[in-house]
Amino acid sequence: YASDCLTIFHKGKDKCTDDFIRTPGLWLSKKKLHARFTGNWDNDAGIMGVGDELSLQKWYHITYTLSDPEKRLDIYVDGEWVGYYSIQDVKKQNVIFNDGPLYIGQAFSCDGFDGEISNVHYFNWRLTPEEVKKDLLRGLRKNEEDTFYYISFDDKSFDDNSISILKLRPFKNNTNAQWKVLRIDNYYGYPSLTDNSPIKDVVLINKGTGKAMKYRNKETGTEITQVDLAEADNNCILWSIGSKQNDGTRAMHLNNNESMSLDGWTGNLVDGCEARLFPTHNGSNQLWTFEQVLCD
């Protein structure tokens, strides 16, 4: 992060003009969010340095709400209300909205946000706290019937012919109860990462209980595993446990350098979310990308 304000988004006209407007606007400076807007008394009103410092290499769900009738701006991080700005002179002071362009990641000559933005939802009404949480839990896209998710490696240490795919498909058309897990090795004989085999074992874990479901592991070929989930599918987290052998009935204890999460803020299997996997074999970190595709 730089000390100067970096643009996350900015809606309004060029700052070089006399009527510079920033409604709404969100910036990042010294690891903190700066939520601003333009009013008829100040073209740069709002919050400076709201909430805790943001961490690097971590996804956040950030919600900015602004209302002239309510005379306030609110900021939420991962569904939690972290700060607000309230207009004091409610009869004379008003928010100035605009029909200017919406800039995402960079605006005008200002430095842009040096990071990744997964998606942006722009609503034409002020979200309530309940709607903020609903948007958070929904993720990027609701899991729809007759769809499944697949995971593919996106790592330079793997060539195009060595991609391994893991498919998660609703079992018996009941997405809230059961899943089938298919492990597909595209061809026999993986290239190695630092002279070690890539991670092969996969297990489903119930997010609510933390207990592992039963699974099977094979060195090559297609693997089909049926698991019963006590809760809805968004309470299930997919983990890889390195080269350890396990029948799926014992508790799983991760090493310090081994972790995996799905959606950075919900843990859901959702379209487009990414997870970073830190393998135990000291190979380079692998980036997994989730996508939603139609069933065969």
Question: Could you explain the architecture of this structure?
Answer:
The chain is mainly beta. It has one helix at 129-138; strands spanning 6-11, 25-29, 32-37, 45-50, 62-67, 72-77, 80-86, 102-104, 147-154, 164-170, 178-185, 202-206, 223-228, 236-240, 274-277, 286-294. The strands form four sheets. Strands 13-11-10-9-16-15 form a six-stranded antiparallel beta sheet, with no helix packed on it. Strand 15 (274-277) and strand 16 form a beta hairpin. 24% of the residues are buried. This is 17512_t:CDS:1. It comes from Dentiscutata erythropus. InterPro entries: ConA-like_dom_sf (IPR013320), Ricin_B-like_lectins (IPR035992).
Write the layout of secondary structure elements.
Blueprint (H helix, E strand, L loop, with lengths): L5 E6 L13 E5 L2 E6 L7 E6 L11 E6 L4 E6 L2 E7 L15 E3 L24 H10 L8 E8 L9 E7 L7 E8 L16 E5 L16 E6 L7 E5 L33 E4 L8 E9 L2
Antiparallel strand pairs: 1-2, 1-8, 2-3, 3-4, 5-6, 6-7, 9-10, 9-16, 10-11, 11-13, 12-14, 15-16
